Amino acid sequence: QSALTQPASVSGSPGQSITISCTGTSSDIGGYDYVSWYQQHPGKAPKLMIYDVSNRPSGVSDRFSGSKSGNTASLTISGLQAEDEADYYCSSYTSSSTLRVFGGGTKLTVL
Amino acid sequence: EVQLVESGGGLVQPGRSLRLSCAASGFTFDDYAMHWVRQAPGKGLEWVSGISWNSGSIGYADSMKGRFTISRDNAKKSLYLQMNSLRAEDTALYYCVKDKHFILTGGTFDYWGQGTLVTVSS
């Protein structure tokens, strides 16, 4: 069982917006602004999409945005495109002895 | 261009050891913390271990403590993971990952290698 909780799957049609939630505790998401999101296409390495809750690395589309409220972080993808279909993972720094935790991953299907 | 190339994976019997290596290029290696993250077949991501820029701070996931040892050689721009007492549940693709920062506090994994597969089976 993963330390952070994500929905197993979400779906949306091209052009729509979707939001993926990631729920933790006050020891991780709620305690630090060190939440990041990763996109992984089948057979590929993960790619950083959002860091420090809401920052986008250079080269990542502004259709991707992140936010946090309490112990829950969210990734929103607007204007869905076919190439957005992938697995998405959230991650957070944690005060526990395991310094980093991931969510179980969310499979995004573009209908 | 940042490149991280893992090596050392393979088939190993339960209880045996394996040493993974990661060769880094395209950035100033000793300016950044580094990590190992693994992914079991068909499963999600799991942080394994991390090491700060100067090896002064090291961390492990609870299930790896006492069995795995992370190290780095800044002169060789290389990251290592010594894995002992391997178990079937350690079977996974092991990724070498660059941190955005030089210390372990925070934790943004900004570049990933392609991974090296470790299979633990008799």
Throw out a few tags for this protein.
heterodimer, A: about 110 residues, mainly beta, 9 strands, B: about 120 residues, 11 strands
Structure description:
- The complex is a heterodimer of chains A (111) and B (122).
- By secondary structure, chain A is mainly beta.
- Chain A has no helices and nine strands.
- In chain A, strands 1, 3, 4, 7, 8 and 9 form a six-stranded mixed sheet that branches.
- In chain A, a hairpin with a 2-residue loop joins strand 5 and strand 6.
- Chain A is globular, with a radius of gyration of 13 Å.
- Chain A starts with 8 loop residues before the first strand and ends with a strand.
- In chain B, strand 7 and strand 8 (78-83) form a beta hairpin.
- In chain B, 0% of the residues lie in helices and 50% in strands.
- Chain B has no helices and eleven strands.
- By secondary structure, chain B is mainly beta.
- The model of chain B has no long low-confidence stretch (mean pLDDT 96).
- In chain B, strands 2, 4, 5, 6, 9, 10 and 11 form a seven-stranded mixed sheet that branches.
Assembly type of the chains comes to: heterodimer
Q: What is the approximate shape of chain A?
A: globular
Q: Number of helical runs of chain B? A: 0
Largest interface: A-B, 25 and 25 residues
User: Low-confidence parts of chain B lasting 5 or more residues at pLDDT below 50?
Assistant: none
Q: Give the % helix of chain A.
A: under 10%
β-sheet strand percentage of chain B: over 45%
Report the mean per-residue pLDDT of chain A as an integer: 95
Sketch the topology of chain B as an H/E string, one letter per element: EEEEEEEEEEE
Overall mean confidence score, pLDDT of chain B: 96
Low-confidence stretches of chain A: none
Query: Could you estimate the helical fraction of the residues of chain B in percent?
Result: under 10%
What is the ordering of alpha helices and beta strands of chain A?
EEEEEEEEE
User: From the helix content, strand content and strand pairing of chain A, which structural class follows?
Assistant: mainly beta
Tell me the major beta sheet of chain B.
7 strands, mixed
Cα distance, first to last residue of chain A?
29 Å
